[in-house]
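INFO batch 0412 | record 1 of 1 | parsing
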Amino acid sequence: MKNMSIVISILILLVSACNKEPAGPAPQPYSGPEWTGTLPSDEVQVQGNLIDVRTICNPSEPEVFPQNSNYEFDASVVSACGGVAKYAVSLVENPGPEWVRAGSAAAVFVASDCKDLESEEWKAYGKSFRVGEITYYLHQYVGKSKKAGVRIPRPEMSTHSAMVIAPKITVNNVKTYGDAKITEASSPRPSAKINNVSFVVLPGGNYLAMCTGSGGNTGPDIFISGDKGVTWRKQGVYNSQKNLVVNMFTLFVHKGSLYLMGLGSNHMNLYILRSDDSGLTWTSPVIIFEGDCSTISTPVVESGGRIWKACERYADLDEYKRPFVISAPSDADLLDASSWVATNAVDKLSYPVDDYIMAGLIEGNIVVGRDGTIYDVLRTKSYWTTEYATRFEVSGIDKLDYAAKDFSIKMPGGGVKFVIRYDEVSDKYWALSNPDTGFPKIVRHDGITDLNHGNIRNRLVLLSSDDMVNWTVVNDKVLYDPDPFFHGFQYPDWMFDGNDIVGVVRAACPVAEGLPIRQHDGNMMLFFRIKDFRK
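INFO prediction complete | emitting tokens
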């Protein structure tokens, strides 16, 4: 009997378990992106690849998709969206925003080229609008977890970028680059772009950087760091009208004093100034070369009892700039115009190398050969390659001509702006530049064509050479992003600081407010450090 009771008890338990409602799947934890910052009640934040924030029907920027002039909104968008609003979008062929979150008072709308998003969380809003031949259908989020972030559905038949539409939108989790952002333009697509970046290590160890286009200002601004580049602050107010140097300038230190060499307005006249208080104030500008001129932040070098700087005569097209070199005795008063002597300007030159035509010799570097010969090593432009630079030789102090041999140098990134410096410790020449490694001759997406080698600048690399003729890539990702259309780490200026290389670049990078115009147009100046570069 006792055994029978046990059997009956087990049967009762089994029947009860069979009749019990299934527990259902366990709640899944949130697996979306990490959202940064506290979101204002009326703001929407999005995340995805290459997301831009634009204004619907903006007369100054009518293109619907970044870098694509083939699509504009038609009138239906105004009634559908209830007036002018911001929207987040990507390249026309990309998925667009993939995640979205919203503040407590913000409605979340998505426009998709598919009429049904196939999701209970998104409800058709009953309105649509046209973008060229594309019909976009509006959907509103009706779920309960928008503050935590929700995924935007993308049906398989969707072929164009989705849009998120709201009065206020920012992009979440934007990637940062380098060791510090020194300054940026007022918006990612400003009329005043970051240009003319220059960098110097002061005798006391502080860092000084200079550029134009900061905060929307068209003139130069100077920034100083007293903690080895970790933090930066603006150094006084640079007076462009008084100082006259406004473009293509170089900061350098000579005999313990800080100097600034650069051009006046309209590329006219090469000026020099000195500062005895780390760039807060400057002496009166002195013209050391009169007339049309071009230069860039490349080294001012002391050798053979003189200091040297490479320049070019300026014309409207880069191909017609004509290189020359200016120099002065090392112990002379650099603010005395009579101290300076210029070489001849080399006639325009184009020549073939490996079936490529080399032309546009600009942005020269003064480099001293092992025998003391002064060379001007120039960026050499070609539509098809950036693998060559050109070397001229200074004879005496007033003649510049082709080097006797090896005037064409095989140098990765020789077709874009580079800076070469000699390091006594390693007994090597070092350079930073933008080789086009890994890309075909022309890179395209659906909106832009002919992004050729000279415009691919999404990789800043470190090079070294024993003889300035044969170059090796030592670090191929000093600064890098795989996207070549909206990322550029270009126009470097740098110096040695102990065992490190430190410097700045003009950078084009996405920000929370959207994408830059293109990889070429800088919207920030970045500081970077290459630790133990000789290793």
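INFO post-check: The first strand starts at residue 44 and ends at 47.
INFO record closed
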